[in-house]
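Tutorial, part two.
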Amino acid sequence: MFDDPPHPDQQPPTPQRRFDATPTDGLVVLDTDLGYDPDDFVTVVIAARTIPNLAVVTADETRGRRALLARHVLDLLDRPDVPVITGIDIGGEHRFLINDDLGELDQRPYDVTAAADQLAEAVAQLSATTTGPIRWVGMGPMTNLTALLTYTPDLAERLMVTQMGGWLDRYRDTTRASHNFRTDPASAGLALRALHEPRLVLSDYTNADIIQITPKWALLRRLQAPTAPAWARLLGAHFEAWCGRRPGSWMHDPLTLSAALGLPFVAFRPERIRIARDARIYRDPTGRPMEVSCAVDYDGFLDWLHEGVSS
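Running the prediction step on this input gives:
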């Protein structure tokens, strides 16, 4: 058992690194809608500080804003080596909170077919530079993954997909799919049907209040300190912008990253899953085989989260 970690609203002790989150082979790809809910930003920080062979693909793009932000954040974290691939734009203008002063936006008429082709080609070229699996960490809508499976289906043999999304028993609004699936339900349905036993970190487990970061979180105050590094102050500002809209941010995506890296916080079990047209998922004995989250060690996860952001 781990030592009891601090509650997010209490002052944490100085952490000691106890978790090895470095894959021994292959490539880790974050498919992230960075720039909206700050849990994506937290995930990029932890990944950049712990994973040598890393790439970022931007989900739910908005004229290249997310790609510009990802490049800026990675450079602040001294990771200019991490490639950033611009993903497909699906109209997420209102799902972006960071200011636009990061570079020139693409003003050309948008061609989704060309964008999908360029995305698939970029990922294929990147995957050719490494052996082993491609650990795809799905943190946003599944549009990019569906394009990749469509344009380069041979890569499906190497993909190990861990996707944040879906719910089976508990959700804040049971009349609809969870956010990542309902933003592009057609892509979610196609990808989940095409993949071989994807792993889903369900919203049933990521919506737990214990992993909600609020403005009272002690580490958040450290991130916002004038003496904090530039990446930390930007993350603090992002939290502030988000908390102007919502009471806090649940750490859905860092939990998903921990599962993709094989850390022991999320337990999975096999289920047969039926996928509805609106991307809601249901248990069904004739459905497709998937691995779904069934338990979480929240205390251990919070310890790792704190370690990854503050150490």
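Residues 1-17 have pLDDT under 50 and may be disordered. In part three we will examine how such features are distributed along the chain.
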